[in-house]
Amino acid sequence: MDVADRLTPLALAVWFMDDGAADFAGVTFQTHNFSSEEVRRLDGVLRERFDLVTSIRSNRGRDIIYVKASSIDRLEEVIRPHLLRGFEYKLKPRRARTP
Fold first, then answer.
1. How many angstroms separate the first and last alpha carbons of the chain?
2. The CATH number of the domain where 9 resides is what?
3. Which residues pair with 21 in a beta bridge?
4. Which one of 6, 66, 69, 85 has the minimum C-beta count within 10 Å?
5. Within a domain: residue 13?
């Protein structure tokens, strides 16, 4: 069994709190230490199991998973029950933040 098989809403929330980041318009999962094959597998699980609109981007020469702005509300719906206070800022893209 691989990590993708164990990706529950709780596991997704923990992963997001650790390796999630707000981007300009969406949010990312920093998957720099995963192989390209593993990133593709995780990306597929996010799409299929959690109904997220994602893409894979290159960052520092490695693949990361980008959750598009249209899916931030859906991601929040999935992880909100498990999200610790103080991590909400990661769900707010930089373009939506007030200076």
1. 45
2. 3.10.28.10
3. 28
4. 85
5. yes
Owning domain of residue 50: 3-82
Q: How high is the pLDDT of residue 5?
A: 80
pLDDT along the chain (99 residues), means of 10: 83 96 93 94 96 96 96 96 94 78
Buried b (16+ CB within 10 A) or exposed e, 18-39: ebbebbeebbbbbbeebeeeeb
**pTM, two decimal places:** 0.90
CA gap 66, 49 in Å, rounded: 16
Cα–Cα dist 5/11, whole Å: 11
The C-alpha atoms of residue 59 and residue 96 are separated, in whole angstroms, by 22
Place of tokens 């699980």: 45
On whether residue 73 sits in a domain, the answer given is yes
Domain count for the chain, please give it. 1
